[in-house]
Amino acid sequence: MNRPLCGLYAITPETSDTEHLLQQTQAVLAGGACVLQYRSKLADGLLRRTQAEVLQTLCRRHGVLFIVNDDLGLAEAVGADGVHVGRDDAAVTEARQRLGRAAVVGASCYDSLERAREAVRAGADYVAFGAVHPSTTKPGAPRAPLALFAAARELGVPRVAIGGIRPDNAAAVVAAGADLLAVVDGVFGAADPRAAAALLTGLYPCA
């Protein structure tokens, strides 16, 4: 990974309406998101491939990193910039082997600094902690204390905060040391996705 990661990390919501998803994503990217993760747990394989392809094209146009959630095959098929993996530490190693050294590989570490250390040792480019606030996307997710971001500075990789982040509560998360804010509903569910994305992006002088 050759570029610094800092700012808004947008994550797509579940939807079968590809055209609406594309319109919303255009607004979010115009608002300044530096990373887009395609996350779909419910769509069939054909819809996932279609959505991933159009989003990848859009991200390339905007110069935004395109990450696929937990699907190495799909990431390979559409030429994604990388993949985000969950609890299985071995998945980081497998992702690196399959996608190559240039790919961005991120790992969910929940509320665990030790899990983050293991992920970095396995080759993760960034680590994600959360939920930092109650999450509608993952209601049962463990809560990650904000102090975890300062402690994780030792890892030397970007620290991503996820879970219930909105423009009205994000400043404290940034102040705690999060390098990126991973947001679903806080931007895609906003009345004005572009404005919400711009507010979150504006919290980072690097963005």
TrEMBL record:
Cofactor note: Binds 1 Mg(2+) ion per subunit.
A molecular function GO annotation: thiamine-phosphate diphosphorylase activity
Gene Ontology annotations of biological process type: thiamine biosynthetic process; thiamine diphosphate biosynthetic process
Documented EC number(s): 2.5.1.3
Superkingdom field: Bacteria
Thiamine phosphate synthase/TenI domain location: 8-186
Gene Ontology terms: cellular component: cytoplasm
Pathway: Cofactor biosynthesis; thiamine diphosphate biosynthesis; thiamine phosphate from 4-amino-2-methyl-5-diphosphomethylpyrimidine and 4-methyl-5-(2-phosphoethyl)-thiazole: step 1/1
Needed co-factor(s): Mg(2+)
Catalytic activity annotation: 2-[(2R,5Z)-2-carboxy-4-methylthiazol-5(2H)-ylidene]ethyl phosphate + 4-amino-2-methyl-5-(diphosphooxymethyl)pyrimidine + 2 H(+) = thiamine phosphate + CO2 + diphosphate; 2-(2-carboxy-4-methylthiazol-5-yl)ethyl phosphate + 4-amino-2-methyl-5-(diphosphooxymethyl)pyrimidine + 2 H(+) = thiamine phosphate + CO2 + diphosphate; 4-methyl-5-(2-phosphooxyethyl)-thiazole + 4-amino-2-methyl-5-(diphosphooxymethyl)pyrimidine + H(+) = thiamine phosphate + diphosphate
Function recorded in the entry: Condenses 4-methyl-5-(beta-hydroxyethyl)thiazole monophosphate (THZ-P) and 2-methyl-4-amino-5-hydroxymethyl pyrimidine pyrophosphate (HMP-PP) to form thiamine monophosphate (TMP).
Protein name as catalogued: Thiamine-phosphate synthase
Organism name: Gulbenkiania indica
Name of the gene: thiE
